[in-house]
Amino acid sequence: FLNPARGSAVQEPALAAALASGHLGGAALDVRATEPPAREGDPFAALPNVILTPHAAAFTCEGQQRVLSSVCDDLRRVLHGEPARNFVNFARPKTS
Q1: 80 in catalytic set
Q2: In this predicted structure, what is the pLDDT of residue 58?
Q3: CA angle 82, 86, 90 (to 5 degrees)
């Protein structure tokens, strides 16, 4: 099982139970329901069939540059009456 998207897309207790019981062979998780996850009582930490990686790609210099570029590009587009390309939190960009 791979989840590089959003931690809230997964029911973590159910995933941990499926991994612990062997019903699921393995998992690689880049995101968790709570970021950063608690160190104490983490159900995935002791499982040998789980790979946990830090969700830190956006914090690299390259990631920050891409975010800045896309925000500036969208701002330019909206100021020129064009639709934004990189919106995620509403159905379509608001025009007013």
Answers
A1: no
A2: 67
A3: 90
CA distance 72 to 28: 33
Catalytic pick from 23, 35, 39, 80? 35
Q: What are phi and psi of 68, to 5 degrees?
A: -60, -45
pLDDT along the chain (96 residues), means of 10: 82 95 93 79 90 76 86 92 76 57
- Look at strands 50-52 and 2-3 and give their pairing: unpaired
Say whether pTM exceeds 0.90: no
Annotation says 40 is catalytic: no
Q: Is the peptide bond before 43 cis (omega within 30 degrees of 0)?
A: no
Catalytic annotation present for 12: no
